[in-house]
Structure of SDR family oxidoreductase:
Amino acid sequence: MHILVIGAAGMVGRKFVERLATDGRLGAKPIARMTLHDVVAPAAPAGAPFAVETVASDFSLPGEAEKLVAGRPDLIVHLAAIVSGEAEADFDKGYRINLDGTRHLFDAIRRIGDGYRPRVIFTSSIAVFGAPFHDAIDDEFFLTPLTSYGTQKAIGELLLADYTRRGFFDGIGIRLPTICVRPGKPNKAASGFFSGIIREPLAGQEAVLPVPDTVRHWHASPRAAVGFLLHAATMDTAAIGPRRNLTMPGVSVTVAEQIEALRKVAGDKVVALIRREPDPVIAGMVAGWPRNFDPQRALALGFKADDSFEAIIRAHIEDELGGRIPA
Amino acid sequence: MHILVIGAAGMVGRKFVERLATDGRLGAKPIARMTLHDVVAPAAPAGAPFAVETVASDFSLPGEAEKLVAGRPDLIVHLAAIVSGEAEADFDKGYRINLDGTRHLFDAIRRIGDGYRPRVIFTSSIAVFGAPFHDAIDDEFFLTPLTSYGTQKAIGELLLADYTRRGFFDGIGIRLPTICVRPGKPNKAASGFFSGIIREPLAGQEAVLPVPDTVRHWHASPRAAVGFLLHAATMDTAAIGPRRNLTMPGVSVTVAEQIEALRKVAGDKVVALIRREPDPVIAGMVAGWPRNFDPQRALALGFKADDSFEAIIRAHIEDELGGRIPA
């Protein structure tokens, strides 16, 4: 089969592609070819047992999405997005990439026609929800984005469902939890501390915690995110019905519970590297974010969360630190 | 003040404009000027005590929305839409008018900038909801459109909320119930019988009822719809908060209750003009439509439904039949 990944240079995209390169197959089907796309050329995975083509372009520009789908990939994984902060700072750019880009892609698939009907996975976000909401948001709660990014993701979900209903493709939208522990350098994202307070201490470095211990949030490991994509790519979509967008399962923990899990895995000395430095601006933003979900539909359809926050930390140590905590 | 009505040639648009022409003012403010737009030139209301300009154009084409808002209207009422059946039959046209047209309009307002921030009323629809749903859909139920029209309206709602949040205009979206009794000739809409079984018998003509008496639906008179628009145009929008789209209140009745109301108002002879002719296709479509709502937010914000289905029939007789049932 032929797989197209749009946004393949991002963290989740890279891990998904590496996993496929290791497996050589998707479910029971051997992979013959992958096309990896991003605004900068993605790296081809080392040692992939199939042909890999890398493409760098702005897929929101006229004609670019058509080129990407012209080879009729069997599976299209759409991970590309202008992230929350940038979509808020640059209104036009956010709408151009996140709304127009997504719609151009969907239309390019539709225009091929001729019986072409690929599986399309759209990665949405819990940013489609904005406060106030219930303590555990259920699968029928309405979309109340409080950012342009969340608005654009919610619109992508609606388009995905309608284009699927019309038979243009076989779409599934998955709302990812906050990915934790995100590997790599600290970034400026307001949510960055959720990963930072685990990642930096495990690397022997100090991390700043800007919010109270009582803050609760919704997490999934990069490994779980790859699992969501693999399941979305291979599952029987007939079971989903017309409501094609699903909140992925996650682990809901408070910051205090994150810290206690870290203590259990890595000890007091590592935990002591977390420095509390309250930041009212970040605390204010985080107060409007979802804390917990009741994702019964995704669970019933076979999507699997991490077992616990401790398991999330252990997955990080295995996947990013070679299984060892640096002394 | 200057009012722009887009979609002014439609039934609700005409009644709204006629009401403003009679009043000469909107709330406390005298109307200086109205611009009436539609794809065909709308009729100017007779005897309006203000200047009326009529414009015919396709507002989804580049530059057209800019022309409409260049005069900086204080209030913009956006009623234009490709209706459900046509948006389903002509995919490109539905998206071009209902999504692109709406977005072009919103962007044209945004691009004026310079402190311009008009009140914008967007008429949405209960078609943003699709089965299965609760018996009475509450204000937090998620949007589950099962038509391209409903999808386009849901996207318009999301854009309205985001553009309002960003301060580009002061938007309010109102989800209209099915308008009943719709005046004029019978049309091909699958929902047409809800009006037809009242309108035709009152005019001494036979009407066909294609669904069982037990079918329940959500209704508002044209008079109530005009009331919603007037309230949305004059209310204090600060009370709404960031969730700018509201399900309007209506009257939930079964077809049997519609018929008994007609009997009470007009007698057995009129009711005898309703002929039952089951149509499984129409019955199947109607089975997926909302039956009842619990529109607490709109009620708390001062929107008023008709008192009863009997009141809806009496409003039709007063407004369309000169207060008399033809013998």
